[in-house]
Design a protein that fits this description.
It is a single chain. The chain has 189 residues and is an alpha/beta fold. It has a single domain, classed as Rossmann fold (3-Layer(aba) Sandwich). The protein is built from seven helices and six strands, in the order βαβαβαβαββααα. The protein has a six-stranded parallel β-sheet with strand order 3-2-1-4-5-6, sandwiched between helices. β4, α4 and β5 form a beta-alpha-beta unit. The termini are far apart.
Length: 189
């Protein structure tokens, strides 16, 4: 069985994440998509990820976006891609794993630890993101040219919330309700 691991902060998860998973399955690139929320971000200082909402909230929001053939799986360590893939391969040897990234990750992909091993041993699928070119000279990456470009981002959702704008169209009603009920992403005074 082909499983695409979809790692990310999911801070918060949005409709783009859901669409990517559905398209991975509908295009037969993966039989299942497993969301793997970042437990501890490896570059929290460099990328200012220390302000992420608590892991348990992000995990719960991912649970709210699950659909058929999508699942939540945990990797409770610093979330480097290659060790994550190795651990899942060890824990589930019956599955053929690959990794999903957005085009926004392409410019820095060569900086990832073991980026060549990730591609060669597992495979990387790259979905289009608005404002980022879906092209690379890195051999072996699967550029998902037939996918609908993802316009929404978690940053956009947080910015909407800071301005007190509605987010239901960006995250769906379940996640929007969860954010409201738990008073997440408060506007700074």
């Amino acid at each position: 069985m082909k499983v695409a691991l979809f790692g990310g902060a999911f801070d918060p998860p949005h409709i783009g994440h859901q669409r990517i998973a559905r398209e991975m399955i509908s295009h037969s690139i993966a039989d299942e998509v497993w969301y793997v929320p970042v437990y501890k971000h490896p570059w929290e200082d460099r990328l200012k990820k220390w302000h992420m909402v608590d892991y348990n909230h992000r995990k719960k929001m991912v649970e709210l976006i699950l659909s058929p053939q999508t699942y939540l799986h945990e990797y409770l360590d610093v979330s480097f891609t290659y060790p994550t893939l190795l651990q899942f391969s060890k824990d589930y040897p019956e599955y053929d794993f690959s990794w999903i990234i957005g085009a926004d990750n392409l410019p820095a992909f060569r900086d990832w630890d073991y980026y060549r091993e990730i591609i060669n041993e597992f495979g990387v699928h790259v979905y289009p993101r608005k404002g980022f070119k879906l092209e690379t000279d890195i051999k072996g990456m699967n550029l998902l040219n037939d996918f609908t470009e993802v316009v929404v981002s978690s940053t956009m959702v947080r910015e909407f919330l800071q301005k007190k704008d509605g987010i239901t169209e960006l995250v769906g009603p379940k996640v929007a309700g969860y954010i409201k009920e738990n008073s997440l992403y408060h506007a700074k005074s």
